[in-house]
Structure formats: structure tokens, C-alpha cells
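User: Show me a protein chain along with its predicted structure.
Assistant: Here is one chain, sequence first, then C-alpha cells.
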Amino acid sequence: MHAQTTQTGSQSISHPIQIRGLNKSFSGQSVLKELDWHIEPGSIVGLLGRNGAGKSTLIECLLGLRDADGGSSLLFGDNTRQLSQATRARIGYVPQRSDLFEWLNARQMLDYFRQLYPHWNEDKVNSLMRTWELPFDKVINKLSVGQKQRLSIIRALAHEPELLILDEPVSSLDPAGRRDFLRELIDSVIEKQTTIVFSTHILSDLERVAMNVAFLNHGRIVHQQALDDMMDSTVRVTGKTQVLAQLTPKRTLSACRNTGTQGEDSVLAQFEPQQLELLQSRQDMRLEKLGLEDLFIEMTR
């Protein structure tokens, strides 16, 4: 399969992530089902799904850390099962659980990884180690869970990757640590047009950094959209069946029949601003704006 590309002047840039028909099952239970997904260069995508939806499995298959049962996935045009060393050097990854060399101290571990990457920012490493008050000479398995997660983040950022994949990167950090990490992400990564995939269950953190959200449900990416556009244009409309049948939304996200005690139906849909104005003036239906948490629940039923 040929990598899809984006034309920029005379240059042709492969999509950082391109997935087609990805399948993965465990003990006969399908987790990923004919999953298609691609991400544009410079995107910051929040990957959302309920616990057990397959977010970590998707990320591991994408990185070649777990074999898929079918389909294909490409990173910068390279098949993820046979990534070149040059492509690996363009990728940073923070796993949900620490995969550090815990018998080494932080200095030894960072020195090891520095040899693997042609672009290693030692000033960034030293600055973050000081800011987050991490000891260079303490054996890693003696660090707290939060300190290990910070060290994983430093390792992932040190070589200034073009694609950064974060699987619940701040789940073990306290609120101050999460704030510091997000500030670092915004200050030193986003301004470099790094492509970021950010899986998290902390929706308030996601809202601070994500440009786009992608919902993983029933083994597929069921919806992906710019976060601001989704929040502005999406409403739940409730009313009689025949009234809702007259609606002409630009996109219907989900529908629910016989809600409440009045035999009404509801639909989660997106409308143009002019349509929303007209709908708000009608007496035969009710409109409700939803926050990201409510949208998450609706999109992952």
C-alpha cells in the first residue's frame, strides 16, 4: 500500500499516521475491527474511549509493539512492522506503564538513549530534570511512580520527535505535575508543529492541548473532529418523532428513542450557526448544549 501524502510546495510529506483495516483480537474477542484512521502533520489529537475500548492496543499495534491480526499501519510511510532506524528517531512515546531500565540510574538511562538519537537536546533534559526535581544518580526502581512517569516524558521529549504518542502520560502525576507537563507540551512541542496523539481519561487536560478529538468505540474510530467545532455545533435535540424527522443537521452523531416519560425521542446532531438560531426559537423541541464529558459518554455508548 502506498502512503497517502500531503503536497506542500515542491515537497511531498507522508502522513505521520495512516491505518487501514486494522484488526486485533484476544482469545476470540475482537478489540479492533477494520479500523481506519489517518492523522495530518501538525495535528494534536486526543484519543478518547472507555476503559477497555482498546486505546492502548491501538497505540501498541501502531508502534509495532504488538502484532495486529490484519490490516496495515504506516508511520511516515514506513510499515510499522519494519520501521527504519531513521523513522524510529522521528517518534517519541510515553507508555501507560513505565518501560524504563529500572536497574540503571536516570543519568545512565538517558546516556544510553542519547546514543540512539541524532537529535538529542541535552539542555532540555537538564532543564526538565531540574524543574521536576528529579535525581540523576538515584536508581530508577527507587523512584516514585510519578517520578518514573516524569522521567519517561523527559526521555520522549529529549530527541525532539516529529510524532509524539502519549498513552495516559499523566495518570500518575498530581495536579501540579500535570500542569507542568502540559505547559512543557505547549511551550516546547506544539510550537514546533509536532504531531501529537494524546490518550487520556482526564478530559480537562485534553481540553487544554487537543486541537482534534477522536472517539474509539466498538473497535473503530467512530468520529474525529476539531474540538472547538464539535463543541460549538453539537446539541442534543429532544422532541416528538415527527418533529425530529423534519431536522436537516449537517451531521447526526447518535439517536435515542422514547426518552423520558413523554414518549419523546432525542438526537445528538451538529448544525450550522444559522440553523441553531432558528431551532432555539422553536417551541416544539428542546436544545441542550453538552460539555466534553457528556459528549464523551454519548459517543462511546
